[in-house]
């Protein structure tokens, strides 16, 4: 975009210096190039403003993610002092108010036996199978 603007400016100056200023065709061409140059400059300014908006939104989102990460680490460190963790799942992405206990070996590693028992208590029939299959994807 900036290269196009520079080319238009140089072409406009060359046209102004060329030939007789009385030439109507040359004046028309110079005016067209000036208009095109103004349009390109306005377009570039609009894109710069849009880019700045996107950068600000990205920074805010990144700050929110970093804050959530710090909170998660803080809570995981608190949980690691206990030998068990409270984890409640209602549906994918929703946390249940009545959490059930799942034993953990290390932070982030779920004890399979305790998880299986908790799934049987929490999910009816076929859903236990799906919950266990879902955790097998996390292990791999």
Structure description:
70% of the residues lie in helices and 9% in strands. The chain has a three-stranded antiparallel beta sheet with strand order 1-2-3. It has 140 residues and is mainly alpha-helical. The model is unreliable at 88-107 (pLDDT under 50). The protein has two domains: 1-81; 83-140, no CATH class. InterPro entries: FDM1-5/IDN2 (IPR045177).
Helix and strand arrangement:
Layout: H1 2-17, H2 24-80, E1 84-87, E2 100-106, E3 109-110, H3 112-122, H4 126-139
Antiparallel strand pairs: 1-2, 2-3
Helix pairs in contact: 1-2, 3-4
Q: Tell how many strands the DSSP assignment holds.
A: 3
Distance between the termini: 47 Å
Low-pLDDT stretches are 88-107
**How many helices does DSSP assign?**
4
Number of domains: 2
Largest sheet: 3 strands, antiparallel
Structural class: mainly alpha
Average pLDDT score = 71
Largest beta sheet: what is the strand line-up?
1-2-3
- Oligomeric nature of the chains: single chain
The helical percent reads: over 70%
The share of residues in extended strands comes to 5-15%
User: Helix and strand succession?
Assistant: HHEEEHH
Shape label: rod-shaped
Based on CA atoms alone, the radius of gyration comes out at 32 Å
Quick description:
This is Factor of DNA methylation 1-5/IDN2 domain-containing protein. With 140 residues, the chain is mainly alpha-helical.
Attribute tags:
140 residues; mainly alpha; 2 domains; 4 helices; rod-shaped
